[in-house]
Write a structure and sequence with these properties.
Distance between the termini of chain B: 31 Å
CATH superfamily of chain A: LarA, N-terminal domain
Low-confidence stretches of chain A: 1-21
CATH architecture of chain B: Alpha/alpha barrel
Radius of gyration of chain B: 18 Å
Largest sheet of chain B: 2 strands, antiparallel
Mean pLDDT of chain B: 90
Distance between the termini of chain A: 40 Å
Structural class of chain B: mainly alpha
Number of helices of chain A: 16
Strand content of chain A: 15-25%
Low-confidence stretches of chain B: 119-125, 293-303
Number of helices of chain B: 13
Strand order of the largest sheet of chain B: 1-2
Oligomer: heterodimer
Largest sheet of chain A: 10 strands, mixed
Radius of gyration of chain A: 18 Å
Number of domains of chain A: 1
Helix content of chain A: 25-40%
Strand content of chain B: under 5%
Number of strands of chain A: 12
Shape of chain B: globular
CATH architecture of chain A: 3-Layer(aba) Sandwich
Helix content of chain B: 40-55%
Number of strands of chain B: 4
Shape of chain A: globular
Structural class of chain A: alpha/beta
Order of helices and strands of chain B: HHHHHEEHHEEHHHHHH
Number of domains of chain B: 1
Largest interface: A-B, 44 and 47 residues
CATH topology of chain A: Rossmann fold
CATH class of chain A: Alpha Beta
Chain lengths: 332, 305
Amino acid sequence: MNRFARPGRREFLTGMGGALVLGAGGRQLANWNEWSQRADVVIADAPSYDIDLESVLKRGLAELGLGPAWVRGKRVLLKPNLVETSLGRPQINTHPLVVRAAAETFRSWGAREVAVGEGPGHCRDAMLVVDESGLYPILKQSRLPFIDLNQDEIVFTPNRLRDSTLARLALPAAAARADIVVSMPKMKTHHWVGVTLAMKNLFGVMPGLVYGWPKNVLHFEGIEQSILDITATVRPRLAIVDGIVGMEGDGPLMGTARTVGVLVLGVNLPAVDATCTRLMGLNPWRVAYLAQASGRLGPIGESHIRQRGEAIASRTQDFELLDQPSLAVLKT
Amino acid sequence: MDWRKHACQTLKNDRDARVGAWSGHPESAPRVEPTALSALALLCGDDPPAARTIGRQAADWLASQQRADGGLPAALGLDASNWPTALAIILWSALELETEPRRKACRRLLDASRDATPAAGGRSDAAPAGWPWVDGTYTWIEPTALAIIALGREGKASHRRVIEGVGMLHDRALGKGGWNAGNKAVFGRELRPQPTATALALLALAAHGDRSDSAGKAVDYLRTALEHIRSALSLGWGLIALRAWNAYPSQADQWLEEAHELRAERDHSPASLALLLLASSQLGVQLLIPRGANAPALDPTRGPR
């Protein structure tokens, strides 16, 4: 008998859950669920990786009311999205210069410690991904420690949400002891769950030693349920989304590059992810895990998110999706 | 000093002498994978008697970690048996320890659940199954390859589970050569090969005496890919596999030295150092897949040694 429930078709089909749950009436109900929730999200103009990204980040964080006092003396763990080797494919992984800009920002604001950590889902050799993503020279130049979260010491902690059947979650010690975990995803489509952004990026926090590669235990528990549980339990304090060059089509690995020219920042992850989804020309209410996060982990309704910086309408792109019925609803 | 001597000394220094085992990183709790690989790597060094003593201690520690079901966990405190069970068997077998833990672990691997990795866009119950990373989940290339290698050493090469596992490797071989983590395509689009999965699959096929077209293309992929890879885990497994297929590149000794140098500045995992050592000598391959274990007549120009 398997320890884990066999994933049903729904677990593999995104959007469909949101579509069933959140038709027009359902959306009104969900909007009502999050009526008291508000979050700020900044869309910062960043046309290329060659600009002064540290200044862009500092201005954006200031818009969120974050500054040196928020970081001083804290341990910061930056969690970029490094999923697979990507020579010549800059749309797969969080760009190293965005990671460096974040690290320098927090260091200059007096962080006690800044480290970069990732537990790649598909490739057990984290250093290979670090090399081929171009991150290693940045780590070396900036003297930034890298922690393979798949192999770190393990700390068990109660599952704060219990959307999955897991009573406790195993976290890498580096994430458990960090005062501030920063989710730093790439803005990408995802062939199973529709979009992969700040919340889905947290799958990479979960240790492969416990959950396997690609964190298959969590797939059995339900991808959407696991995303919610991990977000609620890891409790990242900030999201910085690399939307300078994103990925459309067959994401998160095989898609093509799409330039959006923005960094998206916020302290509430569902709100950040909902904003990014809109920037991708998709409906966040149709992304099952975002719809399920609404009112529980944060707001995703446009009227509940105070948008700062660039306007969504002026920066929205029409991201291509795989030609799958389960994904088509994301455009409606 | 030759990097191999330095590496052996580092491995000895990193060992937790109180328990005779290695951790994932210095000063953390011992684990099965680094312990099995480090003990095997020292057997390739220049002091075999001392290495055998250290190996016996490591073997005893591994036995102490065995769960009632015969499997070993990936880390202390985990209540599940999984993929490192195969590595423990390989060490016990290399040390020729005819022990009950070895037999129990072998039975555990043979009894492990089988669940085919979902094929593109959904499950495929008809697909041949191998072994999972974590019991009760889908099967993937690397744990399947490790199980085939371990069970081959135990004289189980013709067991239906092993035959099915080899079939799974063939089923998941990429058309362009090599293996991804599990599937070969998602929504009809072929995935990219990964060096470690490819290396372990090739090593398993070599252990099984299997020389198919998919192996030949994978060797070609790996030879090309390793030219620019210096991360220890991928390079180590990759070169071990190429040695097993008589395809060890002439520049590989230099690559290993470069990887050793790079590892020293950024990667303190004993397992990665052990893999570099195992890749640096033919004995390393021999320890993992003994010559003649299952080997049929082979093409000396392209095929398992």
